[in-house]
Amino acid sequence: MADSLVPVFQLYGETRQWPTPDLLHCESIPERSRRHDWRIRPHRHADLYHLLHLSAGGVNLELEGSERTFDAPLLIVVPAMSIHGFHFSPDTQGHIVTLSRPLAEGLQQRLAGQAGVLARPEAHPLNSPRQRARIATLIDQIDDEYRHPALGRSHLLEALVEALTVEVARLAEPLPGAAARSRPRQRGEAREHLQAYQALIEEHYAEQPGIEWFAERLGMSSAHLNLLCRRLAGRSALQLLHERLLLEAKRQLTYTNMTVGEVADGLGFSEPAYFTRFFKRLTGMPPRDFRHQHKGTEQPETP
């Protein structure tokens, strides 16, 4: 299936902004799949990574051009830009943990080679009772922490995901020839350019350089960069930059005591009023209202 014909979603079936100030999203497989008659049709994500844990049931898995059927217990890795689809049996139980690109890139920096498992589309049967129990425990802890926010939420979630990534890397390591089999197929120059643009965004989003600045460093025109982003990510180059700024703004409003003015200044906005207009345009509410609605127990409320 051609890249331009494959739907691009934030989360399957949704076009809204990333729904949480956290760098990950966790939900049960039945929560989303039951709504779609247990079939998630082939699609891809420009900047999200999936870890699916099946504790019961089974799935017909379409992943990067191959189709196979698996029974639980199973763990599936779906990297960003990988075309994937699922047809779950109605008795399937388990969870989908979705990682944002900033979280995945942070794991790659901290775990070096072990985090490379997140870039390899693969289904890993959980044949060892010990590995099965350890992974199931981590998934349950992630789900519980995600649903019941408490002190230190963001740090604990990231620590649990880091531990889960190490466990998945251990799953992949013993398989003879696994590195050769699991290595992603050549993505093509367009996908490489998109990934390079997303990496530049991650390095420079708080400076808010213009799209022309990004395009120049990628060796292309801004029009070509926009075309590439719309075709592969379903959003313009500027929208991708704004989504990263918005995610960071949400995180700082939720998990820090910084004033709205300090958040605005740290994210490269020339004045708080401009930041407030930007935030309200993308979320439907001003930053202070968002803070009141989403503030957890990590820090006392900022006046």
UniProtKB/TrEMBL annotation:
HTH araC/xylS-type domain span: 195-293
InterPro entries from the UniProt entry: AraC-bd (IPR003313), Cupin_HpaA-like_N (IPR047264), Homeodomain-like_sf (IPR009057), HTH-like (IPR037923), HTH_AraC (IPR018060), Tscrpt_reg_AraC-type_HTH (IPR020449)
GO molecular function ontology, one term from the record: sequence-specific DNA binding
rRNA processing listed as a keyword: no
Pfam family, one: AraC_binding
Keywords per UniProt: Activator, DNA-binding, Transcription, Transcription regulation
Source organism, top-level taxon: Bacteria
SMART domains: HTH_ARAC (SM00342)
This protein's name: AraC family transcriptional activator of pobA
